[in-house]
Design a protein that fits this description.
Largest sheet of chain B: 8 strands, mixed
Number of helices of chain A: 8
Number of strands of chain A: 8
Radius of gyration of chain B: 21 Å
Strand order of the largest sheet of chain B: 1-4-8-5-11-12-13-14
Number of helices of chain B: 11
CATH architecture of chain A: 3-Layer(aba) Sandwich
Shape of chain B: globular
Helix content of chain A: 25-40%
CATH superfamily of chain A: Vaccinia Virus protein VP39
Radius of gyration of chain A: 16 Å
Order of helices and strands of chain A: HEHEHEHEHEHHEEHE
CATH architecture of chain B: 3-Layer(aba) Sandwich
Oligomer: heterodimer
Distance between the termini of chain B: 59 Å
Number of strands of chain B: 14
Number of domains of chain B: 1
Largest interface: A-B, 19 and 26 residues
Order of helices and strands of chain B: HEEEEEEEEEEHEHEHHHHHHEHEH
Chain lengths: 197, 389
């Protein structure tokens, strides 16, 4: 089980309605349903993943989050989860707006481009960083809009999006991120998980 | 080869030996007329278990019938959905109890236009009332009652079968634990209606049709009916699929004949499909069933539209479309998904990528069949657990 999914599960109250955007093979949905009795729905582009979810009895809609979020009505979910894909959209701002429209709250996780190893790779070696969290090279990465935890923090402030909680994840360690420790956490977290509304 | 009249006579004798339920309860049709004491012909496969939690209802398409799998005893041909239904198949008859009924308006033993009108003592022909998809579905509900099934594990169907299924879920929201509408639409589009009208006009243009009175003479407007079937067959294939299958290939000849015989393979195929069809189907039934499809618009039945049709829906849906289907497109199917989402229903959706067009649901399309099987098996586990609680 990915640590990140455990953190997301901990952020979600029992018996709620959750939409998982880019739900993959349904691992997170399965966890949420079993451990928290959450009513889950998924949206997924990849045919094999869709089939996998259906085998597991998890409700999943095959579709593209970039173009097909309009099908979900306003505030139709308590939470919308977007795990590590915000940076891969053509228009992340538009997607984010849609997520906030569909969910009463939104959980977003991002691979942190401000992580120290990423910074060193670029600063000292002059190469685009390739790490465990960012495994692709510059020419085949799906990531179009990389950002840091600090970037997303500032973005939310600018757009008057309420940040309820931010959790930094580094391997198996998690820590709360606040404005006061943002600089240091931005350096040492591999992944940032935001609860916003 | 028996004469057509002889063939019909022989078919009617055989039709006396199939499973039928006489529905005594009056059924008020959408057209305002009421029918009662009418037959519903049906077939079942597999065994209903003691808990009665393994029943799957299949709705057939325009030219289908109750003989889903195995050998059709009337035509001696394979059932129309052998690819999906049978022992060890996606809808596994070793595990599930499969039910399928012939729609009213049809010609495989259910109440239809070639039945005898008790008033005139002659076949109804065009005196048969115009029926709707909703009428078909209500008639089939009587069958479930007869079989003692309170709740189906699943109901499924492709094309018109999918439309019946959507209607079934809207009219009887707690009769199915799960539902798989395949390659269908919640309302007939202008293009759908136009193609059906083409089929009807072909039949009506055949002088043998004679305002539907051919039934009195025990004949059949086979030229018109064959053309109607050819129209259908074109719409079931995709442009690419057709090109790959036939291209410009010639039918058992080296060069053009410079005549109007079937030079091209595609011509030969259509003629074969058309004329094979007239031996098993009634022309008036095509008129009635295509009319029912054209009148189908689920959103029109509910004030709040399609979303309202699926309100308070407990059924778990899986909608499946095929990428190259231009008769009931991915968009048509997605509109159903959107409405189900808006009403908060439990819905899954998958688009199967294939070149085989609308016909895909009847073919050995592995991705489709695997998805269907996976869904049914997971639903069965859930349904059993729910029943236990």
């Amino acid at each position: 089980m990915k640590k990140e999914f455990k953190v997301i599960a901990d952020l979600l109250p029992n018996n709620t309605r959750v939409l998982d955007i880019g739900c993959g093979d349904g691992s997170l949905m399965h966890l949420l349903r079993i451990e928290k009795n959450i009513e889950v729905r998924g949206l997924e582009l990849n045919q094999d993943n869709v089939k996998e979810c259906i085998y597991k009895g998890l409700p999943v809609i095959q579709g593209n989050a970039e173009t097909e979020l309009h099908q979900f009505p306003d505030k139709s979910f308590d939470y919308v989860v977007l795990s590590q894909t915000l940076q891969a959209f053509y228009e992340p701002e538009k997607v984010l707006k849609n997520l906030l429209r569909i969910g009463k709250s939104v959980i977003i996780s991002i691979p942190n481009f401000g992580y120290w190893k990423v910074r060193i790779k670029l600063l000292l070696f002059g190469e685009m960083p390739v790490t465990k969290t960012l495994p692709n090279t510059w020419y085949n990465t799906p990531n179009l809009h990389m950002c840091t935890i600090k970037d997303l923090f500032n973005f939310c402030d600018e757009k008057n999006i309420i940040i309820k909680k931010v959790v930094g994840v580094n391997e198996n360690k998690t820590s709360l991120i606040r404005k006061s420790n943002l600089e240091i956490k931005n350096l040492f977290s591999k992944v940032g998980i935001f609860l916003i509304s | 080869m028996p004469s057509l009249a002889g063939l019909f006579f022989w078919m009617n004798i055989k039709l006396d030996n199939i499973k039928k339920l006489d529905v005594t309860k009056p059924l008020k049709l959408d057209c305002g007329k009421t029918i009662k004491n009418f037959p519903i012909a049906y077939e079942t496969y597999g065994k209903l278990n003691d808990n009665k939690d393994n029943a799957i209802l299949v709705f057939h398409a325009l030219t289908g019938d109750q003989f889903v799998t195995g050998t059709n005893p009337i035509t001696n041909k394979e059932g129309w959905w052998v690819t999906a239904v049978g022992p060890g198949r996606a809808i596994d008859t070793n595990k599930y109890f499969v039910i399928c009924a012939n729609v009213i308006g049809g010609c495989m033993g259910s109440f239809g236009p070639k039945d005898i009108n008790p008033v005139t003592k002659k076949p109804y022909g065009l005196d048969f009332p115009v029926i709707t998809i909703k009428d078909m579905v209500k008639a089939q509900e009587s069958l479930l009652e007869h079989l003692g099934i309170k709740k189906l594990l699943c109901a499924t169907g492709g094309s018109m079968g999918g439309m019946q299924l959507l209607q079934f879920c809207a009219t009887f929201p707690d009769k199915a634990f799960s539902a798989v509408p395949i390659a269908c639409s919640s309302s007939h589009s202008a293009q759908n209606i136009a193609l059906n009208e083409l089929a009807r006009q072909a039949i009506m243009a055949d002088p043998v049709w004679d305002n539907g009175k051919y039934v009195l003479k025990n004949s059949q407007p086979k030229n018109g009916l064959a053309v109607a079937r050819m129209v259908g067959h074109i719409s079931y294939l995709s442009e690419k699929g057709m090109q790959e299958k036939f291209g410009r290939k010639l039918q058992e000849k080296a060069d053009y004949e410079f005549s109007f015989n079937a030079d091209f393979q595609v011509e030969s195929y259509l003629r074969h499909q058309g004329y094979a069809f007239v031996e098993r189907f009634d022309a008036n039934s095509i008129l009635y069933i295509t009319r029912a499809m054209d009148y189908f618009d689920l959103s029109k039945q509910f004030k709040g539209g399609l979303v309202e049709a699926f309100k308070n829906q407990k059924t778990k849906f899986l909608i499946i479309s095929f990428s190259s289907d231009w008769l009931y497109t991915t968009k048509d199917n997605k509109d159903i998904v959107i409405a189900l989402n808006a009403s908060g229903a439990d819905v899954s959706y998958s688009e199967i990528v294939t070149d085989k067009g609308h016909d895909s649901f009847l073919l050995d399309e592995p991705e489709f069949l695997k998805t269907l099987k996976g869904f049914l098996d997971s639903m069965y586990e859930k349904f059993k657990n729910e029943k236990r609680i």
